[in-house]
Specification:
With 247 residues, this protein is mainly α. The protein is 64% helix and 3% strand. It has a two-stranded antiparallel ribbon with strand order 1-2. The longest helix is centred in the N-terminal third of the chain and has 24 residues, at 5-28.
């Protein structure tokens, strides 16, 4: 099945956020069958499998970037057309917002009976375990560096995009499993400080959705929101520069 790359990135990002934030909602919201108060192991595995499913579904159409940091990194190393970068960014952000909205609708009764706004926000976007913006952004930089460097080494030239003169690389069906495993190990090893956003669309889009909810005491924490956006972009740039340096 091949669909337009923009639609594929939208669908893939929506699947990723629906399943990824879905597990956080299942574990954290009141009176769900999965209520266990954020066990990091389950969350890490669920996000890794969510990436695997989303990437497998969309790999042949868009290369399954599903992350603006990945798209930027591939463009810097010459494995993706710069002409498509902003289009992919928009598809990823809008897909992340739609997938998050689906999670909210799916668990809406549990959102209504959960009063702790910090718990509610955790099912949409990330927050630091200890608020220290300098160290928080370092965590996001390093986590995304590992992700993007790994993805650059894993991807293959598997997508042909009309009117693009660049050989475009992405995650193919065979590469989706190792990328999912990479997400799992990042979550288990590096997720303890900031919740490992490692994806600007994954955090900013859901945070925006949360800020629009009809809740009286919502706390979107916009003063922190630049960390899971800027950090991943810096990490992607550093990973791609290192790749160019050593290859």
């Amino acid at each position: 099945m091949e669909i337009h790359p923009f639609l594929a990135e939208f669908i893939g990002s929506a699947i990723l956020l629906f399943l990824g934030n879905g597990v956080v909602a299942n574990l954290n919201l009141n009176k769900t069958y999965g209520y266990q108060q954020s066990p990091i192991l389950l969350i890490a595995f669920a996000w890794g499998f969510a990436v695997f499913v989303a990437a497998f579904v969309t790999s042949q159409s868009s290369g399954a970037h599903l992350n603006p940091a990945v798209t930027l990194g591939l463009a810097i190393v010459g494995k993706f057309s710069w002409d498509l970068v902003l289009i992919y960014f928009f598809a990823q952000l809008s897909g992340a917002m739609f997938g998050t909205w689906l999670t909210y609708l799916f668990y809406i009764d549990h959102y209504r009976i959960t009063e702790n706004e910090n718990v509610i926000r955790s099912t949409f976007c990330t927050a630091p375990a200890i608020r220290n913006l300098k160290n928080n952004i370092f965590s996001e930089i390093l986590g995304t560096f590992i992700l993007v460097f790994g993805v650059i080494c894993i991807v293959s030239p598997n997508i042909e995009i009309e009117n693009s003169n660049v050989q475009n690389f992405g995650i193919g069906s065979l590469e989706s499993l190792p990328v999912g495993i990479l997400i799992i190990v990042i979550g288990m090893a590096l997720g303890g400080t900031t919740g490992y956003a490692i994806n600007p669309a994954r955090d900013f889009g859901p945070r925006l959705v949360y800020s629009l909810l009809p809740r009286k005491n919502k706390k979107p924490d916009w003063s922190y929101s630049f960390v899971p956006v800027l950090g991943p972009f810096i990490g992607a740039i550093l990973a791609s520069l290192l790749f160019n340096l050593i290859t």
